[in-house]
Amino acid sequence: MANNYRDFSQVIRNLKPKEYKWLSEQLESPDEVDVPEDEADFWPGFQVKFEDDNTTIWFYTVEHGNIHNVAAFVHAFLKKFRLREVFVMNWADTCSKPRIEEFGGGAIIISAKDIIVIDAYELAYQTKADLLEELRNE
After folding, report:
1. H or E segment to which residue 60 belongs
2. Rounded Cα distance, 136 and 108, in Å
3. 58: left (phi over 0), alpha (psi -120 to 50) or beta
4. Contact between 57 and 70 (Cβ < 8 Å)
5. Rounded to whole angstroms, how far apart are CA atoms 43 and 86?
6. 60 has pLDDT over 90
7. 96-101 long-range CB contacts below 8 Å, 24 or more apart?
8. Dist. CA 101–CA 94, nearest whole Å
């Protein structure tokens, strides 16, 4: 039997005391975070640590993490405190055995206005479809 993993690691630095307080509170009870409905039972669904005297928050995984919950959490934070910043986090999807199409990854790009998810698998197959369409039209 194979095990699948989703790993990521990223930080937000230079937290002010009020930002630390809000982040801590929202981790316990995310009343200001628009958690995806189908993910609410798994809150937060990622590991987090405060470091550097609570001026850095570190998002990471141990085997599997929920990128959608990270995205919702960071989006709420940016909307409340950092309207002009952009957060980027990459993830890797891996498998303990070399199974076909079990590897990939992607990135989330978050601002106060948007959450953009780029999935490597979807991007690759969409690009393949586009190229095949071009070849058919030549």
Report:
1. strand 56-60
2. 33
3. beta
4. no
5. 23
6. yes
7. 96/2, 96/3, 96/4, 96/5, 97/2, 99/2
8. 10
Q: Can you give the pTM of this predicted structure?
A: 0.92
User: Two tokens at 115?
Assistant: 């959450």
**What is the per-residue DSSP string for 74-127?**
HHHHHHHH-TT--EEEEEEEEESS--TT--EEEEEEE-SS-EEEEEHHHHHHHH
Confidence at 17, pLDDT banded by 50, 70, 90: very high
Residue 81 tokens read as 């405190």
Residue with tokens 């586009």: 130
Q: Say what the pLDDT of residue 37 is.
A: 87
In the structure encoding, which two tokens stand for residue 65, read together? Answer: 């993490």
